[in-house]
Design brief:
This protein is mostly helical and 283 residues long. The protein has helices at 71-95, 99-117, 124-148, 152-172, 180-207, 217-247, 254-280, and strands at 15-16, 19-20, 23-24. The N and C termini lie far apart (46 Å).
C-alpha cells in the first residue's frame, strides 16, 4: 500500500505484478492472496477495506522465508532512527546552537526527506541523514520553547509517547479502522492544514507577528489540537503500512521506510505538542 505524511509524500509498500515493487517474489505461505493494483488507490485491493470480511488464509504456515521484513526489523530500524534524532537534539541543546544553524539543519532535513520520498527504494544513509539534521533542528527549537514555557520539551515528549501508545492500542483493538474512507479524509485534512500553515507563514514573514493569528490564543489551541490529531491519524496509517508489509512479505529493506514514516509522524506530533504547550503556558 502507499502511505503519506503531512510533510512528505512517501512511497509505501506497493505491490506490482510479481510481488513488491523491486522485489519479485510470491506472498509468504499462509498469507492472503491479493490482486495487484495499478497505482492511485492505496486500498484498491486491501483485505481490510471497509465492509470486507476477515482475511481468508491459505495453506498452513510454512517456515518463514528469509529476506522478508519482520516486526523486529521495523522496531530495530525505528530505534536507530529515533536514537539518532534524540542524540542530535541533545547535542544541539548542549552546544547552544544558534537559530541560524537550527534553521539550516531543518532545511537540510527537509531536502533529504524529499529526496527519500521520491526514491524508488529506501536509502538508509538518506534516512539517517534526515534523522541527524532533524534532531539538530529539534534541539534548537526545543531549547527556545523551553524559555517560553519551562519544561515544555519534557511535557511534549511525554505527550508524544502517550499519543503513540494510545493510537497503537486503538489500532490493535480495531477501535481505529484504517480503510479507504479514513485515508481520504486524513489526506484531505492534512492538505488543508499544511496549506493553511503555509499561508500563515507567508503572512507572518511579510506582515510580522503570527500572520493570520492562528498560532496564538484560543484559536492557536484549537489548531494545535487539530495538528496533534492529524499526527495521530498518520501514525495509524503507518501502522497499517507496516502490518500490510509484513503480511505480504515485503523485502527487509522496506523496514527502513517504515522507520522513516514513523519518525516523520512522531516529529510532527512532538512539534505540535511543543506549540500547544507553549500556548497553554502563555499567561
Amino acid at each position: 500500500m502507499r502511505s503519506s505524511n503531512p510533510v512528505f509524500s512517501r512511497r509505501g509498500f506497493s505491490r506490482d505484478s510479481g510481488g513488491y515493487a523491486g522485489f519479485n517474489a510470491a506472498p509468504q505461505a499462509g498469507a492472503p492472496t491479493a490482486t495487484p493494483y495499478a497505482g492511485g488507490n492505496p486500498y484498491a485491493n486491501n483485505p481490510y477495506a471497509a465492509g470486507q470480511q476477515d482475511l481468508q488464509t491459505g495453506p498452513p504456515q510454512a517456515p518463514a522465508q528469509t529476506g522478508r521484513m519482520t516486526m523486529d526489523d521495523v522496531v530495530t530500524r525505528t530505534g536507530i532512527t529515533l536514537g539518532v534524532v534524540v542524540v542530535a537534539a541533545v547535542a544541539a541543546w548542549t552546544m547552544n546552537l544558534p537559530w541560524g544553524a537550527g534553521a539550516a539543519a531543518g532545511l537540510v532535513a527537509m531536502v533529504l526527506g524529499f529526496i527519500q520520498a521520491f526514491k524508488a527504494k529506501p536509502v538508509p544513509a538518506l534516512i539517517i541523514g534526515y534523522a541527524l539534521f532533524e534532531g539538530l533542528f529539534l534541539g534548537v527549537i526545543s531549547k527556545a520553547f523551553n524559555y517560553l514555557a519551562d519544561g515544555a520539551p519534557v511535557q511534549a515528549v511525554l505527550g508524544t509517547m502517550a499519543v503513540f501508545a494510545g493510537v497503537l492500542i486503538a489500532y490493535k483493538t480495531r477501535l481505529i479502522r484504517v480503510d479507504r474512507r479514513f485515508y481520504r479524509f486524513v489526506m484531505a485534512a492534512a492538505i488543508g492544514f499544511v496549506l493553511l500553515m503555509a499561508v500563515n507563514l507567508l503572512f507572518s514573514v511579510f506582515g510580522g507577528g503570527d500572520g493570520l493569528g492562528i498560532r496564538t490564543g484560543g484559536l492557536g489551541i484549537v489548531v494545535g489540537i487539530i495538528g496533534v490529531l492529524l499526527g495521530a491519524a498518520f501514525l495509524a496509517l503507518d501502522f497499517k503500512q507496516i502490518e500490510d508489509g509484513i503480511r505480504y512479505g515485503a523485502p527487509r529493506e522496506e523496514s527502513w521506510l517504515a522507520a522513516f514514516g514513523l519518525t516523520l509522524s512522531l516529529v510532527w506530533i512532538y512539534t505540535e505538542m511543543l506549540r500547544l504547550i507553549a500556548i497553554l503556558n502563555d499567561n
